[in-house]
Structures are given as structure tokens and as C-alpha cells.
Design goal:
Strand order of the largest sheet: 1-2
Distance between the termini: 40 Å
Number of domains: 2
Number of strands: 2
CATH architecture of the largest domain: Orthogonal Bundle
Number of helices: 6
Largest sheet: 2 strands, antiparallel
Helix content: 55-70%
Shape: elongated
């Protein structure tokens, strides 16, 4: 069974959860408050419950406070989403994706990092 693609809100939650590895809803809520100070705990808990039902999160119910963890590693999910984006938006062309990314809002620092990686690949 494949894991469904997360929504934008689910991706935001995963961005907070991945560095933690596993966490309670309270810990995820606290991690998200920096970017979203008005975010309600109940909204985080409900979203995590939905994500568990969809298979995006796993849940350990052995303790009073349930412990949630991503069902997929960050790099695996990002790779899957990227493949989907390349197919849908760029007609299967990774080159077109890279060129679009380079033309739209890349910082000088990011460009330098990319150039360094490309030079290392040539060696």
C-alpha cells in the first residue's frame, strides 16, 4: 500500500516533525508555534490524527500521550513528490525543472552551492 501525498498543511506539520523524529502532538504544536503563533493545539492534534488514519504518520499508543512519527523518511517523501512534480509539471524533464528553479528566485549562496556540487561531480 502506498502512502498518499500529503496536503500543504500536512507537509508543514511534517517539516516540524522530521527534525524531532517522533513526538507527541504537544511537542509538534510547540515546534510549529514559532512560524504560526496563532496555531491551536487542537488543530495540530486533529491533523495528526487524520494523518495517522491516512498512513502518513505512525502512532505509538502504549503511553498516555500518543507518540507520532513520520511513516516515511523526509528524503524518501521529497523524492516521491519531486518525481510526481517532474512528471506532471515538466513533462518528465528533470532538466526543465532545474532550469525553472535556477531562473526563479535562487540566491547567490544557493547558486554557489550548486556550482560546487556540479564541479565535484565532474571529478
Amino acid at each position: 500500500m502506498s502512502i498518499p501525498k500529503p496536503t500543504a498543511a500536512e507537509l508543514e506539520l511534517l517539516q516540524a516533525l522530521w527534525p524531532l523524529g517522533q513526538a507527541t502532538a504537544k511537542q509538534v504544536h510547540e515546534a510549529m508555534l514559532g512560524d504560526k503563533p496563532d496555531l491551536a493545539y487542537s488543530a495540530v492534534l486533529r491533523l495528526m490524527q487524520i494523518m495517522h488514519t491516512k498512513g502518513i504518520l505512525t502512532r505509538d499508543e502504549s503511553q498516555r500521550s500518543h507518540i507520532y512519527a513520520p511513516a516515511q523518511a523526509q528524503d524518501a517523501l521529497q523524492s516521491s513528490l519531486l518525481k510526481d512534480l517532474v512528471q506532471k509539471a515538466f513533462a518528465g524533464s528533470a532538466k526543465a525543472l532545474v532550469l525553472a528553479a535556477l531562473r526563479n528566485g535562487i540566491s547567490k549562496k544557493e547558486r554557489a552551492e550548486i556550482e560546487k556540487l556540479l564541479k565535484e561531480e565532474k571529478k
